[in-house]
Specification:
By secondary structure, the chain is an alpha+beta fold. It has helices spanning about 1-5, 10-20, 30-40, 75-85, 90-95, 135-155, 180-190, 195-210, and strands at about 45, 50-55, 60-65, 100-105, 105-115, 120-125, 130-135.
């Protein structure tokens, strides 16, 4: 995929950056998203009605093409971003996605903490949690390398797998009243996540209480 990313045109790079921006911006054209998927080496297949299938790197995603507006709603952008998360490290290395940086080969998301007047970084793709704080970009690089090195050492000493292992995704059919579906859609939109992600998170919280 790296060669495909490097060959992206300016408009396609901008679309990719917009998809990974939080919160998601409005006004992203659906045609721009389809163009991005094709440019990354994927396929766009038309289904019934407004249904569209994306196939990329052996991963399949289904979406609804917006109608009649040509703009993609924010919920769909969030869902697209979640799907592309598995390719994130490859995409970030080339496209300079906002609020992220590579440290010792590991992607990290960066945020500014006003009360500390400093930046906080959090590594992605780890099985546990590892962050770092600094008041400058160069400081982030240094502190990030130290934190990651210590995290990997701790994992080694305790026999813990340091990186997230990809799990197989299973599916099931969920039946619910139409009125519940409307509430579910609104709740997911308020949390800026897909309906699927909202349901999984709710189930996970419920199982903690079992």
């Amino acid at each position: 995929m790296k060669s495909k990313v490097e060959a992206l045109r300016k408009k396609q790079r901008e679309t990719l950056q917009q998809v990974f921006t939080t919160p998601p911006p409005s006004g992203i054209k659906w045609k721009s998203i389809e163009s991005l998927i094709v440019a990354l080496g994927g396929e766009v297949k038309q289904g019934n009605g407004s249904r569209v299938r994306f196939l990329l790197q052996g991963s399949l995603a289904r979406f609804h093409r917006p109608h009649p507006s040509p703009d993609t709603d924010k919920g769909a952008v969030v869902s697209l971003r979640e799907w592309l998360e598995s390719f994130r490290s490859k995409l970030m290395k080339v496209c300079n996605i906002p609020n992220t940086m590579m440290i010792a080969g590991q992607p990290a998301i960066i945020s500014y903490i006003p009360e500390l007047r400093s930046f906080r970084g959090k590594f992605l793709g780890l099985s546990g949690y590892c962050d770092f704080v600094a008041d400058s970009i160069s400081g982030l690089q240094t502190e990030g390398e130290i934190s990651l090195r210590e995290y990997l050492q701790d994992c080694l000493q305790n026999g813990i797998e340091p990186y997230v292992r990809e799990e197989k995704i299973k599916t099931f059919t969920l039946r619910y009243p139409e009125s519940f579906g409307e509430r579910l859609t609104l709740a997911a939109a308020e949390h800026q996540v897909s309906i699927n992600a909202f349901i999984v998170e709710a189930l996970n919280e419920r199982m903690k209480l079992a």
